Amino acid sequence: MKNNNSQKNQKLRNDIILAVVIVFIAAAGLLLFVLTKQEGSTVAVKIDGVVTDTYPLSENREVSIKTGENDENINILTIKDGKASISEADCPDKICVETRAVSFVGETIVCLPHKIVIEITNEKTDDQIDVAV
Ligand SMILES: [Zn+2]
User: Fold this and answer.
1) Residue 34 C-alpha to ligand 1 middle, in angstroms?
2) What does pTM read for this prediction?
């Protein structure tokens, strides 16, 4: 009886250790994700999967992106205060306009009807030296 009890306790202890380890791994993963989330420096405009233009995030500007056979599709890309967004578009779903402004590397705004993807990247120029992590 005594043996049985201590086995149960042992099992319970193992379960607790396992749970703590899982929580710890999850927390470490989250921390890593937050730490590696990087402010982007460049906005890449992809039309039909091809990068057609890149703009620095540091300069405020408005760009009209025209697609379609007769440039009939229009999206207005707005870069303001280090963030990029689509401020206007004549696509039917307007999902790109409703997407919040992006500024971190890897974040995208997609306009499916116009086959446009706006992606934040971090293209380095010569005067930006990569800091080793
Ligand atoms: Zn759209």
Assistant:
1) 29
2) 0.69
Of 27-41, 55-69, 96-110, 119-133, the poorest mean pLDDT is in: 119-133
**C-alpha atoms less than 13 angstroms from C-alpha of 123 in its C-beta half-sphere:** 11
Topology of 42-121 in CATH?
A: mini-chromosome maintenance (MCM) complex, domain 2 (2.60.320)
Which residue from 111, 126, 119, 124 is spatially nearest to 73, judged by alpha carbons?
111
DSSP 68: S
Between 129 and 2, the more confident residue is 2
Separation of 62 CA from ligand 1 center, angstroms? 16
Give residues with Cβ within 8 angstroms of 34, minimum separation 6. Answer: none
